[in-house]
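Feature request, filed as a ticket because there's no other form

It would be nice if the structure record came with a short human-readable summary line next to the tokens. Right now we just get the raw output. Example of a typical job, pasted below so the devs can see what we mean:
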Amino acid sequence: MKKEDCFYLGTIVKKYSFKGELLIKLDTDEPELYENLESVFIALGNNLVPFFIESSSLHKSTLLRVRFEDVNDEADADALLKSEVYLPLEFLPELSGTQFYFHEVIGFILKDKEFGEVGVITGINDRSAQALFEVDRDGKELLIPLHDEFIIGVDRDHKRIIVDLPEGLIDIFL
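Raw output as currently delivered:
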């Protein structure tokens, strides 16, 4: 399994017991969807390694307490601390309406209701306080705020996101 075929589920943040149990900090708005997994992929070096889950339960909202097969003590658990956890893309629930996954809209056209076609979404920068669409407009990069109030619609059939941006925002870049 390759990382590009998976989505980031969370990070193993700490040990829970001396018997090898671990806590995964889930990166999701709906942690209950991932409470009864059979297995996950853990990033070890440059590889994704499958780990089978003996038991799991939610712990304090976004933490998943897990016991993996063949992780039986603190030493085994220590080796997995701070590792990223992944699942195959097909485990993502399908979204509708104006909801979308960041990876899903790469390559979509961003279209403003007044301005028209803004450009092609090449990425989403979510490392800042405000997530931003990275949009290529004829070789020039535009950074457009990804804000729920701006998004009018997501047209998956035509690979387009329709937005209503504040007046003058696009002009800043042109």
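Something like this underneath would help us a lot:
The CA atoms of residues 19 and 135 lie 48 Å apart.
The chain is about 5% helix and 45% strand.
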